[in-house]
Fold this protein.
Amino acid sequence: MALLRADHVTHYFGGLCAVSDFNLDLEPGELVGIIGPNGAGKTTIFNLVTGVYKATEGSIQLNGQELVGRKPNAITQLGIARTFQNIRLFKDLTVLDNVRIAYYNWMKYSSWESLLHIGRYRAQEELFTNKALDLLEIFKLDHFADDLAKNLPYGSQRRLEIARALATGPKLLLLDEPAAGMNPREIEQLMEFILWIRKEFGLTILLIEHQMRLVMGICERLKVLDFGATIAEGLPAEIRANPKVLEAYLGEGGDQ
Amino acid sequence: MNMDNTPSSTPTPVSKGHALLERWKMRWDRIANNRKAFPIVLAVGFILSILIPRFGLVNEYVQLVIIYIGINIILTTSLNLINGYMGEFSVGHAGFMAVGAYVSAIFTTKLLPDNLGAIYFPLVVLAGGIGAALVGLVVSVPSFKTRGDYLAIVTLAFNMIVKSVIENIEAIGGPRGIPGIAKLTTLPWTFFWTVLAILVIRNFVYSNYGRGVQSIREDEIASDLMGVSTKQVKLLAFTLSSFFAGVAGALFAHVLQFISPKVFDIIKSTDVLIMVYLGGIGSITGSILGATVYTVLLEVLRPFGMWRMVLMPLMLVLLMIFRPRGIMGLREFRWLIPGFDLYALKYWRAKKEVSNGTSAS
């Protein structure tokens, strides 16, 4: 059964159709890319899946559970985590706190226990702290743990955002332009890294990207959007050869 | 450029002053970083709060100022939870204070017999806090949908509503207020409630609920998408904040001995706002310092009469120019950070080394 199924999803902003009749079946463990020119509706799809926007029409299901109409934090709880195109870290909080916040859903102590620091509070906080630090170590960020997130170098901020997303314990990870602002060498590392976290955390990954090198390199399947409509889908090699895609998107960017 | 780096060109008076400053800074750091000092300060403070009124170590006026400092610390710390940690802008804190003051004053002047007031005082203050917390619960509802300037307007309206409602209830004195409240707020009780407010709010901030509150300030959408129930944490923050505002109101009523709706107008709210931003947002240490500095300065400047209200704002303007984040903005004294949180990284590293050691051998 598909992990994520989007069925005839359509979304309007006022009179503007941002996404029209979007369909997607994500099998567990897949790595699928969504590409398309700027303003094609890619990020809107992420916002629809994660509950930031409520789809005007259609249904989105995770493991058969309807997501449309649920609140973002409830959807996160079901097992979808994401990163953002423009990094959205909690800038004035420490790196450690950034990750610890993502354990909110796993918190078992009540607010009373938090007010008095009694009961399950201590054990749980220690658990979250150690888990967060273990996670940061994997991402080679543990030596930044006490620093403010805004003081991290750009690449580390990107990695921290992925670490924070993983802390929520997702089944499905949505990456919104993870390679934005990276040089070719960093992109190479990022590709390996994405493949590695997929294996290590047993994830299904859906990603939006402009960097053809990354998309063609690691995605198993691609969907191409233009003006909200799906204009092509298939294997990277097929997409590369699709004249419609070349016209809409790759045509401008040359033959990268 | 080169000249500046040679020691001979450095004027001696500057280096002397600098060295002295450095030494004071080091001394200050040592006090600030010695966490063992915290329980000692608490114990000494509590003993002093009993001894001072008992033996009249300082005169009545100074005692009164100390009580006001305590009340202001409670107000400032609790408002900082909303304006500093959550990053909203509440301008109606005096409204919650009014609820606490009136609820407690009704208990001591109307419901309880005079001789029992002193015995039940802690419960009366608690009742004031709970009354305000219930109102805070209601006020938190608009915060689910409204943010920033618009929420500020909501809190402003709330403050006005509380004031006019009280003015129009004849049973509690209407615009004339409640006179003749017994002076039940003593130094030890003020100390107790101040410490309680500081510790409880500290505890809340250093939990995942509190971090959730702070993540709303940083980025509400990201916070929501990381699984934080923003409604839940907003509700908690508002309720907790208004509870302690109510407590402060109750203490205030029983030291002022006379309350009227006029006492709790927008000016009072502004006072608390000034203390929050003077001390620094998102810092409990800042709230303590801000409340203390502001209260003491107002008293010190009293001889200047009318000019007081010129000098004080002028100081604030200067402070905002040279230290826009207040005295302690987003920073904290190490005393106030729970130990295991402060040393989390250290503990984790030590644990790691132990497990590495055992796996290697």
About this structure: The CA atoms of residues 76 and 143 of chain B lie 20 Å apart. Chain B has a mean pLDDT of 89. Chain B touches chain A through 35 residues (CB under 8 Å).
